[in-house]
Amino acid sequence: MKEMTQLKPLIEVNQFSFDYEQINEPLISEVSFTINKDETVLLMGPSGSGKSTISLCLNGLYPDAVEGVASGDIFFKKTNIEDFENGELNQNVGIVFQDPESQFCMITVENELAFTLENIQTPREEIEPKIDQILETIGMTDYKYHNIHELSGGQKQKVALASVLLLDPELIILDEPTANLDPVSSLEFVNLIKDLKLETEKSISLSSIKLMIG
Ligand SMILES: Nc1ncnc2c1ncn2[C@@H]1O[C@H](COP(=O)(O)OP(=O)(O)OP(=O)(O)O)[C@@H](O)[C@H]1O
Ligand SMILES: [Mg+2]
């Protein structure tokens, strides 16, 4: 019980329900759970059960970005996520989408990472050093000037993760980060996450990893 008192809740979900259209049985029905600082959480469920949906609700993108009906509450560090300004919450709760390609806005790796840093008003002279540093962290220094769309699936996942890491969030949600990767790339990505968790002081939480069968 002693450890229990040291847990610091980052996300608290309280009786949360969500559906894309109001029907009798919502997709997500009265779900409650907590993600504490430094915790690694695994969200499991069959395809179509709503893992991506709830992940997008946790950082405030949903329900605003879709036609959806939500009830119940989600708190980030004790503040209801509805009370955050636009864009404020997704700097604290970073998400790497299930299809990372859909979150890129620029053509090259360098420009994509610069775009993220510009969005958070990083001083101009700090942009290049931060890009170089994060590329080193993810082991992709040689790909700085590459076209993102010509990278492998695993490399795209890493660039999406780098982009999220630049925001310095307290919680990172990875939505099935290894689902489209071969076993070697999956292992590489998992090891990268493990190293990051060991090296950085911030907590990294994982969500929605698809169980690999066989
Ligand atoms: N934008 C949307 N509008 C309407 N329905 C949607 C939308 N996005 C998802 N859905 C539906 O909601 C349900 C849950 O989808 P979701 O993507 O959250 O599941 P998931 O658990 O992440 O599945 P997977 O393991 O295949 O990624 C599915 O039936 C899906 O068709
Ligand atoms: Mg999904």
Question: In a nutshell, what does this entry contain?
Answer:
The chain has 214 residues and is of the alpha+beta class. The chain has helices at 51-58, 89-92, 109-119, 124-137, 153-166, 183-199, and strands spanning 9-19, 28-36, 69-76, 79-80, 93-96, 171-174. It is built from 6 helices and 6 strands, in the order ββαββαβαααβα.
Rg, nearest Å: 17 Å
Query: What general outline do the C-alpha atoms trace?
Result: globular
Unreliable stretches covering 5 or more consecutive residues: 210-214
Query: CATH homologous superfamily - what is it?
Result: P-loop containing nucleotide triphosphate hydrolases
Report the bound ligands by name, code or SMILES. Answer: adenosine-5'-triphosphate, magnesium ion
Major β-sheet annotation: 4 strands, antiparallel
- State the order of secondary-structure elements, H for helix, E for strand: EEHEEHEHHHEH
